Each structure stands twice: as structure tokens, then as C-alpha cells.
Amino acid sequence: MEVKKTHYDVLGLEPFSEASAIRKKYRELALLHHPDKSQSSEEFLPIQDSYTYLRDHKEEYDRDLRNDMLAAYSVEQEADEIDDYDITVEDSIQFVTFECTQCCSEISKETNPSSLYNCDICSKFYIIK
Ligand SMILES: [Zn+2]
């Protein structure tokens, strides 16, 4: 399952790192990427953005991140793996089609990088490997 890069990833930190650890890491990276020392100020911009965001919004960001991680985890736990499916292409959009094992309705969805699909009728989640 594809996971979006978090602000912690950008800074090379573990999720939910302490504010003091974030400041320390940011200072290290700032020295490393300082425009006077290298040509990589472009690389430094996302680091600066992530640092500023965490500095100002850490509490709500951590709460949202924790919820996202829990949601992704529980969906994967409940998803059934599907082996029997068809892939079709319409107007250069790829669709996956299979039968819902729970309510027997046909599920036809545009493919996505997470490979997770839910039934519109009964909301059951499936994962296509
Ligand atoms: Zn269903």
C-alpha cells in the first residue's frame, strides 16, 4: 500500500518524534543544506516546510497521522484478497472487475496504487495482489 510521505519522513525522523528531537534534527539538516555550504537549497525547501509545519501544528498533525495509520491498518486487516478478477481498459483508464464475496454484486473500480477496493453495496474491502 502506497503511503504518503509524512513531515517526519521528510526530516528523517520517526513518526511522533518529540519537539526537541525535531528541532535538533532540523538544525543538523539546516547546517548540511545551508545555501552558503552547498547548492542544494532546493532540497532544503521541503525540509523547512515540514519543520515549520510541525513546529506550528504538531498536535493536530500527530492526531491526524495516528488516525490515518490506524485506518490504513484496520482496512488492511479486514480486506479479503481477491485472485479472480478482470482488468479492462476504457478510454486509457484501467478498471478492475470482480464479484463481491459478501453480497455477490459486481465491483468495477478504477485501479489505484493502494490496490484496495471497497464494495459500494456492502462496503466490504478487498485487496488485489
Ligand atoms: Zn458487497
UniProtKB/TrEMBL annotation:
GO terms for cellular component: endoplasmic reticulum. GO terms for molecular function: misfolded protein binding; protein-folding chaperone binding. Gene3D superfamilies: DnaJ domain (1.10.287.110). GO terms for biological process: ERAD pathway. Keywords: Chaperone. Residues 6-65 form the J domain. InterPro entries: DnaJ_domain, Hsp70_co-chaperone_J-domain, J_dom_sf. PANTHER family: DNAJ HOMOLOG SUBFAMILY B MEMBER 9. This is J domain-containing protein. It comes from Euplotes crassus.
